[in-house]
Amino acid sequence: MNNIDIEIENDFANFKLRVNGILIYENRVLGVQMQKNNFYCLPGGHIELFENSIEAVKREIKEETGYDTSVKKLISVAENFFTRKNGKKIHEISLYYLLETIEDIDIQKEYNIIEIDKDDEVHHHFKWIKLEELADINFQPKEIKEKIMKKNFDFEHFICN
């Protein structure tokens, strides 16, 4: 790969094209909390230039978790619009894939990794969250959280503000 993320950035705003993987195992979903966030989300990352989204989600999950996965289906496209704490506006298009692992998983309740992403050290806190406890956890975006809680894996398009 060229390792060039599909992203446009300037001083005021960013546009990002991302993939996210939904891993559900033994009635738990894998969530990640990044060092700059006070919420959990799904693991994933940027699609690289000339990389298809299926290759991207499998690569990102492998990089962040070590798990080899296969894609079951695309369940959502979400257009996310938000503003960071520093005032920078973000426009993000995220593709959400339902995944399964190729091998059995030894579920740890929680673990941390440090990822080197474009020469930056990024801290991730991973947790296997019980589906029945998901309602009480700050998990974003809320539309995807609700789909996971309901085990609704039909395709939907969301515009999240």
Tags for this entry?
161 residues; 48% strand; mainly beta; globular; single chain; Nucleoside Triphosphate Pyrophosphohydrolase; nine-stranded mixed beta sheet; 2 helices
Give a brief outline of the structure:
The chain is mainly β.
Structural description of this entry:
With 161 residues, the protein is mainly beta. The chain has a single domain, classed as Nucleoside Triphosphate Pyrophosphohydrolase, CATH 3.90.79. It contains 2 helices and 9 strands, in the order ββββαββββαβ. The protein has helices at 53-65, 142-150, and strands at residues 7-9, 13-25, 28-34, 44-46, 69-83, 89-101, 110-117, 120-130, 156-160. Strands 1, 2, 3, 4, 5, 6, 7, 8 and 9 form a 9-stranded mixed β-sheet that branches. It is globular.
Topology (elements, then pairings):
Elements: E1 7-9, E2 13-25, E3 28-34, E4 44-46, H1 53-65, E5 69-83, E6 89-101, E7 110-117, E8 120-130, H2 142-150, E9 156-160
Parallel strand pairs: 2-6, 5-9
Antiparallel strand pairs: 1-2, 2-3, 2-4, 3-8, 5-6, 7-8
Mean pLDDT: 90
In the CATH hierarchy, what is the superfamily? Nucleoside Triphosphate Pyrophosphohydrolase
Tell me, briefly, the overall form. Answer: globular
Number of separate helices: 2
What is the CATH domain class?
Answer: Alpha Beta
Main sheet characteristics? 9 strands, mixed
Q: Give the amount of beta strand, in percent.
A: over 45%
Structurally, the number of domains stands at 1
CATH topology: Nucleoside Triphosphate Pyrophosphohydrolase
Cα(first) to Cα(last) distance is 32 Å
Q: What structural class do you assign from the helix and strand content?
A: mainly beta
H-E order: EEEEHEEEEHE
The radius of gyration over CA amounts to 15 Å
Task: Show unreliable segments.
Answer: none
Q: Do you know the CATH architecture? A: Alpha-Beta Complex
Count of DSSP E strands? Answer: 9
Fraction of residues in H or I helices: 10-25%
